[in-house]
């Protein structure tokens, strides 16, 4: 947040010792009104909680119940301030984490899918392909040596409303 302008920021850790961690800044950018400060603080807390619990079943209802706000109000404010609805945010974060692991390990795709909250490899493959245009295997091959291209794909995931995305 800067000067009452809110954007979504994601930290991507360094994969190799010679590289630095990266911040990806996305979302449409929303103006934070004076009445939004309380819900913004709760959204920040809930994003932190979701990040820790991404491998678990995270329903919109569970997230909203944890926030203390009604489903309708929290979803509306979450989408307004992040540019993504709650369900999409969780799916995108899972795909980002899983694709990062795909790129930097040789672990089986099924193991990576299950670790990142997907029930099976088929749903994982379908979700990854729908969000990125690549299958998990294609991501592994295409981006293992080209993190810059991967970062461009990820930026598009978190800025769905951006005209250049």
Assigned CATH class? Mainly Alpha
**What is the mean predicted local confidence, pLDDT?**
82
Give the termini distance in whole angstroms.
Answer: 21 Å
> What integer value in Å does the Rg equal?
16 Å
Would you tell me which CATH topology applies?
Answer: Arc Repressor Mutant, subunit A
Biggest sheet architecture: 2 strands, antiparallel
Secondary structure: number of strands = 2
Structural domain tally: 1
Largest beta sheet: what is the strand line-up? 1-2
The CATH superfamily is identified as Homeodomain-like
- What is the share of helical residues? 55-70%
Task: Report the CATH architecture.
Answer: Orthogonal Bundle
Given the helix and strand composition, which structural class is it? mainly alpha
Give the uncertain stretches in residue-range form: none
General description of the model:
- By secondary structure, this protein is mainly alpha-helical.
- The chain has a single domain, classed as Arc Repressor Mutant, subunit A (Orthogonal Bundle).
- 57% of the residues lie in helices and 11% in strands.
- It has eight helices and two strands.
- The chain has a two-stranded antiparallel sheet.
- Helix 4 packs across helix 6 and helix 4 packs across helix 7.
- The longest helix has 19 residues.
- The two termini are 21 Å apart.
């Amino acid at each position: 947040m800067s000067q009452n302008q809110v954007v979504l920021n994601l930290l991507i850790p360094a994969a190799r010792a010679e590289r630095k961690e990266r911040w990806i800044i996305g979302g449409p950018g929303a103006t934070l009104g004076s009445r939004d400060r309380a819900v913004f603080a709760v959204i920040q807390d809930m994003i932190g909680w979701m990040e820790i619990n991404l491998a678990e079943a995270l329903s919109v209802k569970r997230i909203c119940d944890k926030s203390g706000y009604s489903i309708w109000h929290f979803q509306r404010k979450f989408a307004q301030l992040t540019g993504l609805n709650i369900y999409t945010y969780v799916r995108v974060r899972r795909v980002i984490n899983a694709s990062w692991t795909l790129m930097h390990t040789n672990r089986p795709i099924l193991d990576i899918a299950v670790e990142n909250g997907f029930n099976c490899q088929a749903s994982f493959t379908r979700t990854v392909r729908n969000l990125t245009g690549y299958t998990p295997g294609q991501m592994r091959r295409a981006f293992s040596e080209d993190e810059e291209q991967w970062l461009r794909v990820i930026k598009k995931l978190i800025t769905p409303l951006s005209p250049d995305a």
